[in-house]
Amino acid sequence: MAHLRGLRPQDLRALWPDLPLDDRMARRIQARLIWRDADDLEGVPGLSRAAARELLRRGRTTRLAVVERQSSQVDPFVKYLFRAGDGQVFEAVRIPLERPRWSVCVSSQVGCALGCVFCETGRLGFTRNLQAWEMVEQVLTIRREGPERPVTGVVFQGQGEPLQNYDNVIRAAEVLRDPCGARVRGDRITISTAGVLPMIERYTDEGHPYRLILSLTSAIPEKRARLMPIGQAFAVPDLMDAMRRHAARHGGPVHVAWVLMAGVNTGPEEAHALARLLAGTAVRVSVIDVNDLTGRFRRASDEERGTFLSALAAEGLPFVRRYSGGPDIHAACGMLAARRA
Question: pLDDT tens across 245-260, in order?
Answer without folding.
Answer: 999 999 999 999 999 9
